[in-house]
Structures are given as C-alpha cells and as structure tokens.
Structure to design on (292 residues):
C-alpha cells in the first residue's frame, strides 16, 4: 500500500500539535489552580498556628512548678512544637518600656504584669471549640491565674476559611467542567479530518474496537505528553516564584506537588482517551451522508 503524500503528512501534523498544546494549556490552568489551593491551605495553616495562648501565673510561684507546667503544656497534642516560652514580669515590664518609653510606667508604681507562659497551638486546634476546652483545662491548674487568646483573630480565621472553602469548591467544579469540555472539543476537532477513514474501515468490516484502538493509543500518548508539558511549566513557575519571593519556599510541599503532577497525568490521559473513544464511536454511528 502506498504511503501518504508528504504534503498530506505535513498538513495533518499541526492538527495534533495544536491538540497537544491546547490540552497542555488546559491542564496547566487546572494545575495552577490546584497550586493556589495547596498554597492557600498551607497559608491558612500558618495563620492558624500564629494564634498565641497566654497563661497568666499567680504571684510567687516556685520555679519547679513553673517548669512542670511548661513541660505539661509542651507535651500536649494541641501545642505547636518548640513554641512554649516563659516570660517573667520583669522582662515584660522592660519590653513595654522599650516600646513605649520610660514614662510608660512611673517609678513609684508597682509592676502590674504577671509571669506568663505563652505558646502557639497546632492548626487543627485553632478553632473556638478546641480553644475553649484548652483554656478551661489550663485554668484548672492551681498555679494559673487566667488564660487568654486572640478570640477575634480565631473568629475571623474561621469565618474567612468557611467562605473561601465554598468559593474554592465552586471555582474548582467550574474549572473541571471547562477542562473536560475544552479537551473533548479539541479531540473532536483533531479527529474531524479522519472521519472518512474511520467510516471506511467500518464499511470494509473492521470491528469498532479494532478501529478505535490506534486512535485511543495515540490519545493516551498525546494526553501524557500534554501532562508533562503542563507539569514542566508549573515547575518553572514555582522556581521563578521562589526566586522572586524566597518566603514562598516555606509554603511549598514537593510531595504534594508530586501527587498533583501524577493526578494531572492521569487526568490528561483519562479525559483524552474517553473523549477519543466517544468521538470515534460517534463517527461510527453516523451515516456516510452525514459525514459531509
């Protein structure tokens, strides 16, 4: 059987190149949105772990009991590792003088501060119900005078996270719908030029599976290539962003990105494959006259 003319080969190549690049662009946008979500979650976690709990101690508490309470707090699951600190009232007074000047406290006034233990909570416990329980448990300690935390900050974080979760869900579903639609239409356009070849193979007795197999295999290969292109662009953007803003490096989780990259590959291959099978079967069901 004679080979296709070179002019026909050259003509068909841009069609598949366009298909690969178009799918890569859609997957890139989907992956970029996933990166924003991942970094947003880590940023929210960082904000939550900035919530400070202040344990105010009674006067003249022995150092041994203070150290015992510090060790107890440090061992709790709600305490962020390495965040427990003890600040005596003299240090607190000196810090206030440095911030507001010597006139902040008159020399004839007694020190109004208390010795305190401060710590940050883990993100999973930075919500109102858990903090109320933590406060109640610490106030039961015999050497504790009172317990404070930033209630307004916690309430604001909870409200904003709740709103962002619904917004993110809506945008995510929209992106997935757009991605599936665009990839399907791109595959349909790529196969449009082959509709007569597909139908002719059916007319000479080839089975549907035999006809669709080479197109499905090519779709899987193109979906994989598109995913690699999309993932490569995402990696370049991450390196560029971290070089421009080094603080972003603290939010980056390469393990999570690896799983997301794998998800992009599976999604690209799956949508490409299912769309190709759907389009091929559509042409096989059509009458010859309807192909024109």
């Amino acid at each position: 059987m004679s080979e296709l003319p070179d002019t026909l080969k050259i003509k068909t190549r841009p069609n598949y190149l366009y298909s690969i690049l178009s799918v890569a662009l859609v997957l890139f946008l989907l992956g970029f949105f996933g990166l924003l979500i991942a970094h947003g979650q880590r940023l929210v976690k960082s904000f939550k772990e900035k919530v400070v709990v202040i344990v105010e101690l009674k006067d003249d508490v022995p150092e041994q009991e203070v150290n015992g309470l510090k060790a107890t707090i440090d061992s709790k699951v709600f305490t962020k590792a390495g965040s427990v600190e003890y600040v005596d009232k003299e240090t607190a007074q000196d810090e206030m003088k440095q911030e507001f000047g010597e006139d902040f406290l008159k020399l004839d006034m007694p020190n109004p501060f208390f010795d305190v233990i401060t710590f940050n909570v883990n993100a999973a416990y930075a919500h109102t119900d858990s903090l109320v329980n933590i406060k109640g448990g610490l106030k039961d300690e015999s050497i504790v005078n009172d317990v404070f935390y930033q209630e307004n900050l916690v309430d604001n974080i909870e409200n904003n996270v709740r709103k962002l979760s619904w917004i993110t869900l809506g945008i995510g579903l929209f992106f997935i719908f757009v991605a599936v639609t665009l990839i399907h239409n791109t595959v349909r356009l790529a196969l449009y030029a082959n509709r007569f070849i597909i139908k002719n193979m059916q007319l000479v007795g080839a089975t549907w599976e035999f006809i669709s197999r080479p197109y499905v295999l090519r779709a899987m290969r193109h979906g994989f290539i598109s995913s690699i292109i999309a993932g490569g662009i995402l990696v370049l953007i991450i390196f560029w962003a971290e070089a421009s803003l080094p603080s972003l490096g603290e939010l980056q989780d390469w393990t999570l990105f690896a799983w997301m990259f794998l998800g992009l590959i599976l999604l690209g291959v799956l949508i490409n494959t299912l769309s190709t099978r759907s389009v091929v079967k559509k042409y096989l069901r059509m009458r010859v006259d309807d192909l024109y």
